[in-house]
Amino acid sequence: MSVASTRIAVYPGTFDPITNGHVDLVDRAAPLFERLIVGVAESPGKGPALPLAVRVELARDALSRHANVEVRGFNGLLAYFVRDLGAGVLLRGLRAVSDFEYEFQLASMNRHLIPDVETLFLTPAEQYGFISSSLVREISRLGGDVSAFVPPAVARALQAEWQRIVV
Question: Of the listed 46, 64, 108, 134, which one is catalytic?
């Protein structure tokens, strides 16, 4: 078994879609680590609106300015993904106090599954605290403008997805 590196962090999520809040978190976390791997979870149980390959590509596009940030899709248990990468830090975002209980449960379970990995919580800038992927999806699905909440390519991809479904 390899020793986990605290110089490598994993920021997991479904990123369905990636939002400006996610980008903000990566912008602030990237300088803290030698490598930051954004793990885009397949999560078929959540019924993502966008296919995994599209979510990975949109995240790569949104985060391309960071030389030390890599975006990878994965399926299966997050603990195995983190272990296989040799990462020592699991990065999670907390938007509000309401996120804490669920995130605390996840952190505790991950500590049990991968004890040599620490969970680090970051909060987004205030202007992004109310943005969630699920709200963005719903607004976009109903024809609303989400351009203030997501990178431009994401807004276009969502619009194209809803048009594809309707046609």
Answer: 46
Active-site residue, 133 included: yes
Q: Active site residue: 55, 92, 133, 140, which one?
A: 133
Q: Is 86 left (phi over 0), alpha (psi -120 to 50) or beta?
A: left
25-82 pLDDT, tens digit each: 999 999 999 999 999 999 888 889 999 999 999 999 999 999 999 999 999 999 999 9
pTM (2 d.p.): 0.92
